[in-house]
Write a structure and sequence with these properties.
With 142 residues, the chain is an alpha+beta fold. Helix content is 40%, strand content 23%. It starts with 18 loop residues before the first strand and ends with a helix.
Length: 142
């Protein structure tokens, strides 16, 4: 699964710990995890037992930083990461973002059959026809 990500600049290292990231490459692509520590300028130690991502060093090129952040000490153990993820309701807050909604929309569209796509096209055409008709009525009235 290819995850589309907006371009973001990396923030300073002290601001990284506790940052929620979306993995966009590799076997855990599309899953959220939390930065536990910054290994060097290219890699970070990430962990999230809630989403099934094991503790591992991950390249910054393989992840996209989100605006979400949890309060964690540097090098926090997995049980504290799990607790912080649940306490700050990261999954719920993520699902409310426009980014997550966009990914969900793409995934939903991938599962449509030909007939479903045809029905959607027909509905869009009907909607467009109604809007165009009402617009032209208003245009004539003025």
């Amino acid at each position: 699964m290819r995850v589309t990500t907006p371009t973001r600049d990396l923030v300073a290292e002290e601001d990284e710990v506790g940052r929620v990231v979306l993995i966009n490459n590799g076997p855990y692509s599309g899953k959220l995890c939390i930065v536990v520590d910054v290994v060097d300028q290219n890699r970070a130690l990430v962990d999230c037992p809630n989403t099934g991502v094991p503790r591992q060093a991950l390249n910054f090129k393989w992840m996209a930083l989100t605006d979400l952040k949890v309060k964690l000490p540097r090098g926090a153990r997995s049980k504290y990461v799990r607790k912080a993820f649940e306490d700050e309701q990261v999954a719920d807050n993520w699902s409310k973002t426009a980014w997550a909604k966009r990914i969900a929309r793409f995934e939903r569209r991938e599962t449509l059959s030909d007939f479903d796509r045809f029905k959607i096209k027909q509905l869009k055409q009907k909607k467009s026809h109604v809007i165009r008709r009402e617009f032209n009525k208003l245009k004539k009235a003025t």
